[in-house]
Amino acid sequence: MHLKPFLTSALRSATSGGARYHVWMGLLTLVMLAGAWAYSIQLRFGLGVTGLSDHVSWGLYISNFTFLVGLAAAAMMLVLPAYVFDDVDFGRAVLIAEGVAVAALVMCLLFVIVDIGNPLAAWHLTPGIGYLNWPRSLLAWDVLVLNGYLALNLAIPFYILYSHYRGARPERKKYLPWMYIAVMWAVSIHLVTAFLLAGLPARPYWNTALLGPRFLASAFTAGPAFVIVLLWVIRRETRFPVAEGAIRKLAVITTVAAQINLVMLLSELFYKFYSPTHHGINARYLFFGLEGHHALVPWIWTAIALNVVATAGLMIHPLRRNIRWLIPACVVLFVSIWIEKGIGLVIPGFVPSPLGEIVEYVPTLVELGVTAGVWATGLFVLTALVKVAIPIELGEVRSPLAQEPQPARVIRPRAARPRYDDDRPVRIR
Amino acid sequence: MRTSGGRPVLPASLALWLLTACVPSGQSETGGPGPGPQGAGEPAAIVAPRNDSLEPGTLGSVRAIPVEGWTGPGGRPFEVAVRTRDRESGHARRFGTVTLRTTLRGPTPDLVQYPCTSCHLGRTVAMKDTRIGDAHQNIQPRHPSLLGAVCSTCHSPDAVDMLALRTGDRVGLDQGYRLCAQCHFAQAEAWANGGHGKRMDGWQGRRVVMGCSDCHDPHRPAPLPRIPFRAPTILRNGGHE
Amino acid sequence: MMDAPDRPSPGSVPAEGSLLAKPVDRRRALTVLAGAAVAGVQALSACRPASAVTDEEREVKLLAWREYIKGNYRYMTEAERAETIARLERQAMLQRGSAVTIQSTGAQPGVVFGYAFNISKCKGFRSCVEACINENNLDRNADTQYIRIFEIEDGVVDLDHADASFQHEVPAEGHFYLGTQCFQCADPPCVKVCPVGATWQEPDGITVIDYDWCIGCRYCMAACPYWARRFNWSAPEVPVPELNTNQHYLGNRARKTGVVEKCTFCIHRTRQGRLPACAEACPTGARVFGNLLDPDSEIRWVLEHKRVFRLKEDLKTEPRFWYFSD
Predict the structure, then answer these.
(1) Runs of H (alpha helix) within B78-197
(2) Sign of CA dihedral A162, A92, A410, A398
(3) Distance between CA B61 and CA A70 in Å, rounded?
(4) DSSP bridge pairs for B66
(5) Residues C240, C254: Cα–Cα separation, whole Å
(6) Domain limits, chain A
(7) What is the pLDDT of residues C248-305, one digit of tens each?
């Protein structure tokens, strides 16, 4: 019975805000419209308006999809310490992280839709009315796990927010089992995505056992980095209290994951370059170019340089604990992982082709427009979700039908002057 | 600047409209800049097929004789096709009602066209035609001369319409395979079993193959070089034209 | 900044329970009106619904709708297959005035196709490529070619050093020629990965695609180790006079934008006992085709008496396409 007021107040929360909020959302809307227009061109003329070809048949869309599945997975993996170990510090951050997961999943699904050549036929994937080639096709697995994960990430936070909105306390026994499932599911969505690439003997660049673990490591690096930046923005823009401990723990997770990612990268590089077998030819194209074709070489070296520098910086405790260094390091790390996992993973898998032909790939404006539109949609969804969740969590929005708000576990809004001074470096203990 | 209530309603509706607006169908089937339908239900004129392929049943018009001395795989007998003998057939490889383009031969005169007895009457060459300077000048054998063979190795002077085997037998031009097989026994074996040469119809049913000289000019048997059909369009920087 | 909770604004006049008693916010009214206006514009726009102008237009839309909602050809009944073929033939007539015959011929029992390619005899003429383009109604705009002929230097069978873009007199000294196309593998990786089951292998060994079921995800293209599959990046076009009207549902019928296609060993010919167009067109007789299950076939003789090899044998795809030399 609280549902209708919940939805209307949520809509109101999402559509009202300060000037900067409206400018942000307005900008995103413009980019979304541009993306929609670019997609309409793609629908009209076919995927030929992109830079894709029979040789490089997956490009920017699937690169972003791969990266964003990692983001969605990592966001959920932060849930584990919060709910299972009842870590108060993390508790606040987790709903935000689930919002990131939902937004990332929406982007994933959109990238898949814009990538397929016959989107009107997407209903063929529905078991029952269509035919889903499960369990043989890893893409069928991906369809199931991604949609299941989206359902989980919508249902659990909805339950928690709705309970708070009603003034009730969410029952642990109702959501905790699903939380366990969701954490394991998070690992599985990214492993499934890794397997769908790694399971192709036709593509030696991907056909390695390390691809799944590399995916998880890079997801654990980019995901928490993104959440850190998001929490920092929230702390600056709203009264939502973000504990320093939460950010610290996330920073540690990011750093350790970045180190593991670098070790895995080193392992792959050794395997691919120590002996000049056919298996290393795609890596040779990526890192050094082949027969005069070297479009990706500057990209990958930039990504690795940024990755190493950011990781090294994060490993230094005083730097990591100083928000002024932490935020840029997280941004740099995020960008470098995006380049490495997006451009540096999907595209070199196709160059050279299985018959040894070299055709490079350069995205067109239409492709870039659609990609930007999808990213804007994701950020729009994320902002809206966060905008809805925060007032509820702060206790500022309650159902008009609610009883007296329960005082237990209510969050105290942050005071006007933050307790932790962003400008003062924190001493090492 | 605030819209009414701060809701981005109109832009959102516009986005929805753009996404769902019916775009002109890019999903057309094959067809395109060709002529449109001439009235409802009337098919456009279809010209002759591009491939000189054998339509079902055409094999019946091809004259073929059973092959002697060889059998196909599994001991199955097979036949060799005989070219149509008429002066108008020109340089084409005509078999029955079918003209096949599959040839390795250059524009040398068709052997069938050359009625040897028009000049050679009996053992002595009595030139009926006074253009003696034309006799055989266009045939420059590259084939047997490397091994020391001369014209009379294969063409007996006393039976110029036939081919002479080493055993002394004479065979007709339709059985040229017996001559070639004397030296090219490996190729003949492969030819009989399908690893060499061309089969006239399909993979199933009555097996009619082409004879040796239908592809190879006996006097210059190596396939002639040619300019190939166009190379594929490989756009090195991806994308499309 | 936060509005007051949802409570009716005071001073509303109409009686309780009536429609007019609902409080109407000016903002809300404008929103609804704007949305309705946009929806109305869309409805009146180019997307004309059932009120098509002529009978023919209505028929075209009805055919398109029925084709859209049909299922996977592999699991259709005979009646459903006949219906969809009738619709497709009718569509071809209406759209371009060409009378095509679309077969639904099944596999012959006791037949599995095999192919052998003689790399001594191939001279790089590409007659096979030309025949394939004509026979299979391949897109002339994109110059789609199922067959790829590689020119390789003597001494190495390595596709990394092969050149398919040669355009000079052939055969070139010191080189040999090798052609690839779909090998109709016995354990096809493309079939395994298709999420909707739009591609499968028929009993006679031909891996086929239901173009109307394919969603165009291109996973099969990533999975094929021999680069055998092609995608329709734009609307495929074949000039009507060059159209081959002898078609098969699973083969050379009209494809559309956004679906994958590939060599089907000329399924519309080989199921009738004829050779594929490439084998028939080859002037040098480098291509041998036949039934692997027939011990007396030419293909079996080649496999048993010649030194044969296949590409990427280690991937265990078991292609049914062998290479041999004299």
Answers:
(1) 151-154, 176-183, 185-193
(2) negative
(3) 68
(4) B79
(5) 12
(6) 3-393
(7) 999 999 999 999 999 999 999 999 999 999 999 998 999 999 999 999 999 999 999 9
Q: Which of B166, B168, B180, B164 is nearest to B214 (CA)?
A: B180
**C279-312 burial, b for 16+ CB within 10 Å, e for fewer?**
bbbbbbbbbbbbbbebebbbbbbbbeebeeebbb
Tell me the HSE value of A404 on the side-chain side, using a 13 A CA sphere. 3
Q: Would you call A130 helix, strand, or coil by DSSP?
A: strand
| Torsion region of B239: left, alpha or beta (phi above 0 gives left; psi -120 to 50 gives alpha) | left
Nearest chain C Cα to B14, which residue? C38
CB atoms within 10 A of CB B72: 21
Q: Are C276 and C266 in contact (CB under 8 A)?
A: yes
| DSSP state for residue B220 in the 8-state scheme | B
Task: Report the chain B residue with the minimal C-alpha distance to residue C39.
Answer: B17
Phi and psi at C261, nearest 5°, equal -145, 170
Written as one letter, the residue type at C269 is R
Check CB contact under 8 Å for B26 and C257: yes
Residue written as token pair 């413009």: A30
Q: Examine the pLDDT at A289 and tell me if it is beyond 80.
A: yes
For the beta carbon of residue C119, count every other beta carbon within 10 angstroms. Answer: 18
Structure-token pair, residue C31: 């929103």
C-beta of residue A339 within 8 angstroms of C-beta of residue A378: no
Q: Examine residue C171 and say whether the peptide bond preceding it is cis (omega within 30 degrees of 0).
A: yes
**CB-based contact C5 A5, cutoff 8 Å:** yes
3-state secondary structure of A343: helix
The tokens for C225 are 């180790």
Which residue type is seen at C19? L
The shortest CB-CB distance from B240 to any of A16, A40, A53 is to A53
pLDDT at B25 over 90: no
Token couple for C208 = 């086929």
Mention every residue, 6+ apart, whose C-beta is less than 8 A from residue A168: A406
> Mutate which of B3, B18, B19, B237 to test chain A, going by most A C-beta atoms within 10 A?
B237
User: pLDDT class for C157, splitting at 50, 70, 90?
Assistant: confident
Tokens of C310: 């296949």
CA distance C302 to B193: 8
- Taking the Cβ of residue B2 and every Cβ of chain A, the question of whether any pair is shorter than 8 Å is answered with yes
The candidate with the shortest Cα–Cα distance to A114, out of B159, B150, C258, is: C258
Residues paired with residue B209 on neighbouring β-strands, in sequence order = B80, B199
Q: Which two tokens stand for residue A245?
A: 């401990």
Q: Name which of B23, B25, B29 to mutate to probe chain A: the one with the most chain A Cβ atoms within 10 A of its Cβ.
A: B23
Lowest mean pLDDT among A280-289, A334-343, B226-235, C173-182: B226-235
What are A185's two structure tokens? Answer: 């599911």
Reply yes or no on domain A3-393 having CATH 1.20.1630.10: yes
Question: What single DSSP character describes residue B146?
Answer: G
Find how far residue C126's CA is from the centre of its chain: 22
Domains of chain C listed by start with CATH number? 12-99 (no CATH), 107-326 (3.30.70.20)
Per-residue pLDDT tens over the stretch A305-324: 999 999 999 999 988 989 99
Q: Could you give the angle at the alpha carbon of C64 between the alpha carbons of C60 and C65, nearest 5°?
A: 120
C-beta neighbour count of B57 within 10 angstroms: 8
Q: Which residues on neighbouring strands pair with residue B170, listed in sequence order?
A: B164
pTM for the full model? Answer: 0.83
Cβ pair C231, C260 in contact under 8 A = yes
Say which of A22, A33, A40 has its CB closest to residue B2: A22
Q: Which residues of A touch C75 (CB under 8 A)?
A: 131
